[in-house]
Amino acid sequence: MLELLLPPPVDPLWDLTEAYGADARPERLNLVLGVYRDQTGGTPVMAAVREAEIRLAEHSASKEYRGLSGNAGFNRAMLSLVLGPGGAAERAVAVQTVAGSGALRLLADLICRTRPGTTVWISDPAYVNHRPILEAAGLTVRTYGWVDAEGRFDTSGMLRDLGEARRDDVVLLQGCCHNPTGVDPSAQDWEAVAGLAARAGWVPFVDLAYHGLGDGLEADLAATRLLAERVPEMLVAISCSKNFGLYSDRTGCAVVLGTSHQSLRHVETALQNAARTLYSMPPEHGAAVVTAILEDEGLRALWRAELDGMRTRIEDNRKGLTSELTALGWDAQADVLARQKGMFSMLPLTPRQMLRLRSGFAIYGTTAGRINIAGIPAHRISCLAQGIAAVLGEGAE
């Protein structure tokens, strides 16, 4: 049987990570995976998380199954955190998932069960796992524009493309800190998107993975809350990997907003059924940690302060890189990077130049140009800038 299996495509990010691991050069720099790193290059456990874990260990409860929807307290906390104190949370249902990717797949399965063959629109470029998850669930994928030739958000292009979206299509939107570009719509752009969704009748599907790492937690959630106010139905996939640092604990949440309690009961059951066939029920530890933090005033304040510190460090890295590139004479390229926000940036380099950056300078990013700004140790920013400038210089010769 196994001899019949054709060679499957490899995951591009993990393939690059393996190549990095096999690289013997001591100066190598891994900017592939979206993991926050501190000034030394390490990925610390947040102090709020550590304290919550200590408290949970001291008052350890049973390891009994939580149920198909996971931790109920966590689900309530996610609704409150993401949708805010308004009425949107009252017409929503939440189910804990295996991280943000699990939420995306669970909601994709819900779409397919509700209306098989539904068209889901994703940005171009998109997060590398969006298309595979949607197509694996049996959905049709189309794309809409995101950035223009100058690396700015393409308002007219996006609205033009989504003008073709039909009623009951689904449009996948990243709520903030777009991956891979780092380019986000303005508040006015989000108003236009929300208005188009309300008029055309397509369903927003918001992917929230980086809230708190762009303009601050409340600002990063503003677009999601705006959409929740304007449309009758919406899907939200939430990840706690980045803003709580719970990467390996795989903590996430799938949220659905509707217009009737009966439909939401059916939605929750459908999500539970989908979870049952995929992984049965999600792991408890990360959800318990997040719940402990969000339900305790002191831990919540500590977490918010740490999250702001992470955001500031990411901003400082981006400013440092743009400053170095400007000093090296690459002003236009620095301006492109300066407009971006969040964990990722798209370097203005071709795939060939990205390969040259890897082979000649041991700097690893994706061939599309994405690098993890949050993964640069402070003392390596100058080296990164020099490598980028050298590659740009080679192309200009």
Task: Characterize this entry briefly.
It contains 14 helices and eleven strands. With 397 residues, it is an alpha/beta fold.
Percent range for helical residues? 40-55%
In the sheet with the most strands, the strands line up as 2-8-7-6-5-3-4
DSSP summary: helix tally: 14
The largest pleated sheet is described as:
7 strands, mixed
Mean pLDDT: 95
> Per DSSP, what share of the residues sits in E-state strands of 2 or more residues?
5-15%
Low-confidence stretches: none
Radius of gyration, whole Å = 21 Å
How far apart are the termini?
53 Å
Bulk shape: globular
Number of strands: 11
Order of helices and strands, N to C? HEHHEHEHEHEHEHEEHHHHEHEEH
Q: Structural class, judged by helices and strands?
A: alpha/beta
What this model shows, in words?
- The chain is of the alpha/beta class and 397 residues long.
- Helix content is 47%, strand content 13%.
- The protein contains 14 helices and eleven strands.
- The strands form three sheets. The protein has a seven-stranded mixed beta sheet with strand order 2-8-7-6-5-3-4, with helices on both faces. The chain has a two-stranded parallel ribbon with strand order 1-10. The chain has a two-stranded antiparallel ribbon with strand order 9-11.
- Helix 8 links the parallel strand 6 and strand 7.
- The protein is globular, with a radius of gyration of 21 Å.
- The N and C termini lie far apart (53 Å).
- The mean pLDDT is 95.
